[in-house]
Every structure is written in structure tokens, then in C-alpha cells.
Amino acid sequence: MHSFSYLRVVDASGALAVDPEHAAFIAGGTCLVDLMRLGVMTPDSVVDLTALPYRDIVLNEQGASIGALVKNSTLADHPMIVARYPALAQALAAGASPQLRNMASLGGNLMQRTRCSYFRNDFPRCNKQRPGSGCAALDGENRRHAVLGGSDHCIAVHPSDMCVALVAYEAVVHTVGKRGERSIPIGEFHLVPGEHPEKETALEPGELVTRVSLPAEPFFARASYVKVRDRASYDFALTSVAAALDVKGDTIKSARVALGGVGTKPWRSLEAESALVGKSSTTASFTAAANAAFAAARPQKDNAYKVELGRRTLVRALEEAART
Fold this sequence. Notes:
This protein is of the alpha+beta class. The protein has 13 helices and twelve strands.
């Protein structure tokens, strides 16, 4: 492992004072430590954030405010999160192992990096690692890669479960940086690769996530998260869906749909949502929405199965949300 210095800060100003070009923030370390062991990330300094005060969970009539250092297990088990934002609790419970959930933080999960084997093995042709070197996955093994949001420069899939639910719930990410505080809608936080796969989030160098807020929508309680994976324990999604429905009588008034395991970032499907509004809450309507969600999919040689699997996952998530 690359040698590094360790710094534990006690306030945001201490974190912002470090050199962002050569430092990495650490909370639970469930992603960073892995990548450092692999030699994929080689910071000269590791900045420990665990003494910062971002550990509160506040729920009121405006919605929810969740500190960036809240553990995934704590958030998943919070009774008001389970009641008001069930897809978020379900997504967190579906991620990793209990031991990792006890360590992983909300902020770290937001910053989780791809599980692409070419990226994680520091492959010579990886535009995330070496901009301009190419994307080995395009003509290599790409069974787990994205069918939505890819480009000729990268098709790496985003791995987070939690972020899929946050997208469905229209979360806002709050940050602090050298230029002050910002509020970033979750849909703008993660970036599609385009010509610059090395740029993964809207964060500026050294900017720190402090909390995430969720709006108060009564129908957000009528929601579900469904995850399909190769094995039931500790595996990343092949496809996943977070869905919420506002149903009056038998008519869908509003819907939120986000997809995981299929996009280069947590993928909100406005196409599926539009297809649902005004329709009856039936399997036929859900199937039409699923077709709309994947109409623009660009599968590769090994992952075309994700299109049909993704459609079926979406129908099941909508059916479960409708029964809530």
C-alpha cells in the first residue's frame, strides 16, 4: 500500500484546510480502504472525519435531515425513516453485510465508486483512472456494466443501493467548501461519464458533504425497493428499482421511479413516471412504464439481459408499492 499521513480533524474548517489534490476524506472507510489496498487510490494524506458533528437524524413536517456521518445501519433501522421513506430503509438493508452497514456512512455511500473490474484492477485502459486511455469494458467483459447513461468513454455502472432510493425521493445534498455552503439536488450530484469519466460528482475539490435532506411528500410512504442480484447475501445489484406511487382511487396521480444496477449513475426514469401518471394502477400500466424506462437502453455484448430483467424488476417494484 502507498504510504500516507493520517490527520483527524474536529471541525469542517480543519477538513477544508487540507490539500484536496493529495488528500482523501475517510469516515467508515468501507470503499476508500478497499481502493487503497488495490492501489487504485493513493492519497498522500487520509483525513479522518469521524469527530465531526454530522450525526443527527431530524424528521418534521418539512421532511428529513440526515447527517453525513450517520451509519447506514442506524438510518435503515430508524422507525420514522422506515415509516415515511420505506424504500430508503429497504435499500440500505439490501446493501453489503451487517458489519459493513455498521461502518458505512451516508456521505461515504454518496461517494461510492464503481465496481468495474477494469477500474478496480487499475487496468491500463480505463478512462476513470487514466483519461484518454480508453475503456476496456467496451470490448471486454461487460456483464455487470451499464445500459443507460454510458458513452464511448465509459460504461461503468454505479453500485449504490442507497442512492437509488435518494433519487426516487428527490433528495438534496448539502455541502460546505472553500466557497461556502451549497445545496445540490441528488439528480445533479452524480454525473454521467460523457467525455470525462474521471469526473464522477458535482463536488468541487475539497468540498465536504454535511447532510442530506428529503422533502415531505405523503405518498413517499407508499414505496418499495426491489433488488435483483446473483446471490442473496452481500452482492451488488444486477438491477434494482426504487418506486413510489401517489394513487387516488385506482388512478396514479404522481410517481417516482429510480433505477439501479443499470446506469452510470443512480438513474431517475422520467419516462416511466410520465407513462404512469393518469393511468390505472395495474400490471398493464406498470409494464408500459417499464418499456418506456428502457426504451433508450444501449446494451453491450454481455449485458443485454439487463434490459428485460430491469423491466421485470420495475414492474415488481411498482406492484409492491401499489400494495403498500
